[in-house]
Fold:
Amino acid sequence: MAHFPKPAEGSWTEAHPELGTAPVSYEDSISPEYYELERDAIFARSWLNVGRMEQLPRTGSYFTKEIDAARTSVIVVRAGEDDVRAFHNICRHRGNKLVWNDFPREEVAGTCRQFTCKYHGWRYGLQGDLNFVQQEEEFFDLDKADYGLVPVQCEVWEGFVFVNLDPDNTTSVAEYLGDLGAGLVGYPFHRMTQVHKYRAEVGSNWKLFIDAFAEFYHAPVLHAKQAVADESRKLSSYGFEGLSYEISGPHGMVSSWGGMAPPKDLNMVKPIERVLRSGLFGPWDRPDIGVDELPPGLNPARSHAWGVDSFVFFPNFMLLVWAPNWYLTYHYWPTSYRTHIFEGTLYFVPPTTARERLAQELAAVTFKEYALQDGNTLEATQMMLESRAVTHFPLNDQEVLLRHLHKTARDRVAAHQEQRSVSAVRISAAS
Amino acid sequence: MSTFPPEFSDLEPFADWALRTEGERYAKRLASSMDELQTFYDAALPRLEAAIAHCDQHPLDALPDDAERLLWLCYSLVNASFPIEVWRQQRVPDSGVASMDVVVEPAV
Structure:
């Protein structure tokens, strides 16, 4: 039984005829060869969110980001008041990784006046210019101006720092994020600076975890054991229906109800939740976030039951804005066709009392326990997809964002391959 | 030398739950028996409201040491509540050996 209206076309999926309604192949998630294509077609040429401005509080603040899918590591640095830059994390002398501590593969953060290579002591300014070469007179015709750090395109949107590894990219982040991004402009992300960040190595293709978080069809079932028994049975009998789905370019979003913060009936929730007035949907007592009205992109159905909007920004960035005035980000960083690093980060208005802090702690730990169930299930999915005993899978209307994600990835790979074969033909014609 | 403020002396047997980081609290939960978790939960939950009220006599960023340790114990109670209130086991069901590490958490 439908509780919420669907588009005139009859379903969220059929409102986008290019998606089709046929069962979907998951070969794109189990093929090492296909993953190699995705690395070049997607990760080496899309805007990727690598952090927040709060990680760069002052001039000289920096952090590194490992982007294995694009075969690089980048340094992101605040070079001045309004000057955020990114560079490939490589010394121009002989290719050593420039910024790291102890473990070459681990990310680091800090504050400095310049970057000094551990190997031979070459030094670079915050703008990337090469300032010092050890025994410079030993080199041959070396002009330091020719050996600055290799820049990476870097832009800040609503406090989120993005990089694009394609030097030929001509699209701004705001353009790239399109209508869905524009609808979020003005949300006070900058007020939510209390951070709980989790990281996990997950044994699945990166798209499978986005699948898991881009649909809530699974929630009443997989997470049934998380709720008190009566509530769990009720949730299963209702199933899940989104308030609204939107698809725009490569991105999508689902708007969901959220009657749990606060719940209508206190018997629906666990004892600790009753005392701390918090749970999966966040603290029940909403902090002041200094805005009278939310930006137009949030709660697009204008539903009184609104709980959370989940945005899937292609390729690997999800942003969840919750009705009780906090937000959550997910990032999925592929490390092979069957593994990726998952990051889940919760952002709250900084608490001023122990009561507020404990409410946030409960929300954060609850998030983690749900995510552990999700992550482990993905490994089970990956394993059996790889059996290829079944190759095509029926996706329902509440899974429309999955259909869209996999199609977008496939389209990007196809377009990139076509472009490469066109250039190859041009090169061979010219020779 | 007591761990907690004097009016919370009844919680002194659980002083080893006053752990600063989520990683330590989670590890202790996994290493505890269900009986131990139940005993801790039964002792701490009825004191949670009073503990919050005690801590909230001070600004969160200026808690006396004993109140801060009491708050850490409350965080541990949050962590230990999941096995007791719903799962009847230390780990969330269907999570196998999956792990998720805290890489950034609040100072207090």
Q: What stands out?
A: Chain B touches chain A through 38 residues (CB under 8 Å). Residues 48 and 104 of chain B are 25 Å apart (CA to CA).
